[in-house]
């Protein structure tokens, strides 16, 4: 009787291999042949699960998204039942930044994917939708007169910090300090929660 193969498990195995190649050797090394060698399977098997490089790259980014979602959910859970908007944003963004070896590896893959989609617009459709959703979510937490623009700016700051962290220009401590300073400015005149009671910040 033929052995039953878990298709999703096999695709994830190949995507993990792709991410290792991209993180260690750069985007230019990502090819069906190199990914197959890293995964320990044949190039034909890789093509069986991913017809094109676009499909393989998109699936790998989906794996990174799932990992980030798990990290964010776990971090937010530790904030308790009613975190302040500032604490929530600080935790979410801090969790998404590449501040340790595991998140740096995923960050290099995400950065490689962004570079890949820069010259292949059709491959970036999912990213545009995700960006719009993220901006909308952040805008709903900000007390600014123009929350959507402020949210777009905060998201751009997060991406910029990620690039500088991956390149070694900033240390994790510097990145956290920059994020904290920016959040302080955004929430400078916002009410804050203290013991369940909304109080205004002193002038």
Question: Would you mind describing this structure in some detail?
Answer:
- It is a single chain.
- By secondary structure, this protein is mostly helical.
- The chain is built from nine helices and two strands; from the N terminus they run αααααααααββ.
- It has a two-stranded antiparallel ribbon.
- α1 (7-25) packs across α4, α4 (53-77) packs across α5 (85-96) and α8 (147-167) packs antiparallel against α9 (172-186).
- The longest helix has 25 residues, at 53-77.
- It is elongated.
- This is HTH tetR-type domain-containing protein.
- Residues 8-68 form the HTH tetR-type domain.
- InterPro entries: BetI_C, Homeodomain-like_sf, HTH-type_TetR-like_transc_reg, HTH_TetR, Tet_transcr_reg_TetR-rel_C_sf.
Shape by Cα distribution: elongated
| β-strand number | 2
Strand numbers in spatial order across the main sheet = 1-2
In terms of per-residue confidence, which ranges show pLDDT below 50 for 5 or more consecutive residues? 193-203
The share of residues in extended strands comes to under 5%
Summed up, the helix count is: 9
Order of helices and strands: HHHHHHHHHEE
Quote the distance from N terminus to C terminus: 76 Å
**What's the overall average pLDDT, rounded?**
83
User: For the report, how would you describe the main beta sheet?
Assistant: 2 strands, antiparallel
Class from secondary-structure proportions = mainly alpha
Helix content: 55-70%
Rounded to an integer in angstroms, the radius of gyration calculated over CA atoms is 20 Å
